[in-house]
Design a protein that fits this description.
Layout (H helix, E strand, L loop, with lengths): L23 E3 L19 E9 L4 E10 L11 E10 L17 H6 L22 E12 L11 E9 L18 E10 L10 E8 L2 E12 L3 E9 L9 E2 L6 E2 L1 H6 L3 E5 L22 H11 L11 E7 L8 E6 L4 E8 L24 H15 L5 H4 L10 H13 L15 H9 L2 H4 L21 E2 L5 E7 L3 E3 L4 E9 L5 E4 L9 E7 L4 E4 L3 E2 L6 E4 L4 E8 L1 E2 L2 E2 L5 E13 L2 E14 L4 H10 L2 H8 L8 H11 L3 E2 L29 E2 L7 H8 L8
Helix pairs in contact: 10-11
InterPro entries: Trimer_LpxA-like_sf
Length: about 700
């Protein structure tokens, strides 16, 4: 298989993640085949519904197969094939390929029958969506061949070779599962074209067998369901006083560019849900919509206006909220954990914009609001939405360029150089498109990685702070990263502020990230506890459009900090004992991946009193974690507010439930109210002074302001 390495990449596909690249496509003579004629099997570009009926299982295997004849970097054959498979009980006979067994008999009853039930009905038109929990494996195409007929006028067959990578589902409340580093098996689909089942089907159908080596694993059907490769829905809600992005003229003069047309270039059918998208959403009480927004207020707004009953197992849906804000805050953000699952939403700020700061060259957009620069505004909104589909900055992955996943400052710099050579300047020269790397990620990454509610943001690129062999590191006499915690010892359940300082220790200026916060994506944090378990510490909000690379003078320093407590991977410091916190700054220096790393040790004390046990049990809850990650004041999280009021109130004892059990309640202020946690019968007692956990929350200003 031709991997087509790029001169400016050393880590594609990302380590540990199978991603389909160019495959071998040939006719019966072993040579690349031309586009099919009417006499050839019609292996057409698009998405195919896959149905496999294994010989030895009472579960169907269903999924999608993407045959991509429009991919950049696809090699001389111009073809990339990838797919995703899901388990589905044979008892499901609704005809809905996304169904998970809600109708018909149960999987247990079906497995007890002597004979399996009838196969499901033909699929509904369109690209199917399957439940995340039934994900089985990823398919990476390696070869597609069309046979020569055995006799003149005979039928030609299609052989499709696929590497299958079995998926291990995440455990508990986690969202990131794992793929093996090498294929689980090599499959061969031996297919022949058959008439379509109905006039509504938008393309050819194939039937055949699935072979695993010399073993016949069962029958397979491929039915083309769309000329697109994937589909998703975008909801846009606009606050009063804000202006949403709007379509802009296509530079070719042939139409307009909008979310749907831009995503179509990546093979996506992205539909803006006008029925659910709201305008003139009332400003929440007590909020100044024309100021910089607090994270907690923005989170509460998104949670209140998004489509009720959103089901990420039934549709790929992401949400964009539009608020005014003001100049100098940020042009947009993306939430990694907004409503309980990763990457469900983003925000864009219509009244922020392109403030002159002497570095980027914003041309005619300088000091203007986004709402007044439509092309740049749409690019910025597309950037945040594409973060929600788990795509990262190109100055981290490849090189900064004039594409959607480069930051606005980087695009301005690229266009400034282009303008000096006589090309278009910012903002008119902005290209509303994905570079080949991001385009192929969107089309061919495994479903769990890109779909909303799947893997946490950037989890596919590097886990925690790895020391990858293909990433060049700086020596301490070039760049030094010093990492410190606010204390050497902390109680179990207390948030800890960790800070890091990057210093240029060389005698020459070096290009480094201008923003070292985790939210800006150049910095990653991880924790290794005493048992050797490593856990990444991810930011809740992605706020990165102002981040770029700029020279750091000799002897100069940059600093950032992060409050370590909870992230999408759970609580970082939930076990007593020694912890090592590691920070890695990583970026691309003229196409070469580079990094600098620093660490510090921290000791987490065991609870030594009833008060410390009680308080640790109160705060080690995901909603309290979200409260802390949002900076406090998140009263739209009633469970968190109730627990923290209890933390601030008199000590409560009530048996085992206080010592880490699920039913812990607070002081008298909670009794009889809607947010009572646990049984009504509790006993208040004086168990000593406030614990160090409560003191830490009070010192950091994280207790409810009415507590």
């Amino acid at each position: 298989m031709d991997q087509h390495p790029r001169a400016d990449r050393t880590d594609f596909p990302p380590p540990g993640l199978p991603i389909a690249t160019a495959i071998t496509a040939e006719d019966g003579a072993g040579a690349p085949f031309p586009p099919p004629t009417v006499l050839d099997p019609d292996v057409r570009h698009g998405c195919y519904l896959v149905t496999i009926r294994p010989r030895d299982s009472r579960f169907l295997v269903v999924g999608t197969l993407r045959i991509d004849r429009a991919a950049p970097d696809a090699g001389p054959d111009g073809l990339i094939v990838s797919g995703d498979l899901y388990r589905r009980p044979l008892s499901v006979v609704t005809g809905d390929p996304a169904a998970g067994g809600a109708s018909g008999t149960s999987p247990a009853a079906a497995a007890s029958r002597a004979e399996p039930p009838e196969p499901p009905l033909p699929p509904s038109p369109g690209i199917p969506v399957f439940p995340r929990g039934r994900y089985r494996s990823y398919l990476k195409g390696t070869r597609l061949a069309v046979s020569r007929p055995a006799a003149p006028g005979g039928r030609r067959h299609v052989t499709l070779d696929l590497d299958e990578f079995d998926y291990t589902q995440p455990v508990g409340d986690a969202f990131k599962g794992t793929f093996p580093t090498s294929r689980s098996r090599a499959l061969r689909l031996f297919l022949h074209q058959v008439p379509t089942g109905s006039p509504a089907e938008p393309g050819p159908r194939f039937e055949g067998r699935v072979l695993d080596g010399d073993t016949d694993r069962g029958s397979v059907t491929l039915t083309r369901v769309s000329g697109f490769l994937r589909r998703a829905v975008l909801e846009i809600d606009t606050l009063q006083g804000a202006v949403a992005p709007r379509p802009v003229p296509d530079p070719t003069g042939t139409g307009t560019e909008w979310f749907d047309t831009v995503y179509a270039t990546a093979g996506w059918e992205l539909t803006v849900d006008h029925a659910e998208s709201q305008v003139d959403v009332p400003v929440p009480p007590g909020i100044d919509a024309h100021a910089c927004w607090r994270r907690t207020d923005l989170h509460a707004l998104m949670a209140s206006v998004r489509k009720a009953g959103t089901d990420l197992d039934a549709e790929w849906r992401t949400h964009l909220v539009v608020v005014p804000a003001t100049m100098g805050c940020e042009r947009g953000v993306m939430y990694d954990i907004a409503f309980g699952a990763p990457r469900e939403g983003a925000a864009t700020f219509s009244d922020d914009g392109y403030r002159s700061d002497g570095a980027p060259v914003y041309g005619t957009a300088e000091d203007r609001r986004q709402r007044d620069v439509p092309r740049a505004y749409l690019r910025s909104a597309l950037h945040e939405v594409t973060h929600a589909f788990n795509q990262i900055h190109q100055n981290i992955e490849t090189v900064a360029d004039n594409s959607i996943m480069s930051t606005t400052p980087d695009v301005a710099k690229v266009l400034a150089k282009a303008a000096a050579a006589g090309a278009g300047a910012f903002p008119d020269g902005i290209a509303l498109g994905f570079n080949p790397t991001v385009r192929n990620h969107l089309a061919h990454m495994p479903d769990p990685v890109v779909r909303p509610g799947g893997w946490p943001f950037e989890a596919w690129y590097r886990a925690g702070a790895p020391q990858a062999a293909d990433r060049e590191t700086f020596r301490p006499d070039e760049l030094r990263l010093d990492v410190t915690a606010e204390a050497e010892r902390v109680p179990l359940g207390a948030p800890v502020t960790v800070a890091w300082t990057l210093t240029n220790t060389s005698d020459t200026a070096l290009p480094v990230p201008t923003d070292l916060r985790p939210e800006a994506l150049f910095a990653t944090l991880s924790d290794v506890d005493g048992s050797g378990r490593e856990r990444p510490i991810r930011p809740t909000v992605i706020s990165c459009d102002n981040a770029s690379l700029a020279p750091l003078a000799p002897g100069a320093s940059l600093r950032a900090e992060h409050r370590v407590f909870w992230s999408s991977d759970g609580f970082a410091l939930e076990r007593p004992g020694r912890h090592t916190l590691t920070v890695t700054l990583a970026w691309s220096a003229d196409g070469v991946p580079v990094a600098v790393t620093g660490s510090c040790d921290l000791w987490v004390d065991r609870p030594v009193s009833d008060a410390e046990n009680r308080d640790a049990a109160l705060v080690l809850h995901p909603d309290v974690g979200r409260w802390v990650a949002l900076g406090g004041g998140a009263h739209h999280l009633p469970e968190a507010a109730a627990r923290l009021r209890a933390l601030a109130g008199p000590a409560v004892i009530g048996g085992p439930a206080v010592i880490g059990g699920p039913a812990v309640i607070g002081g008298p202020a909670l009794l009889g109210g809607p947010a009572v946690l646990g049984p009504a019968a509790v006993e208040a007692a004086d168990v000593g002074p406030p614990s160090r956990v409560a003191e830490a929350f009070r010192r950091l200003g994280l207790l409810p302001d009415d507590g």
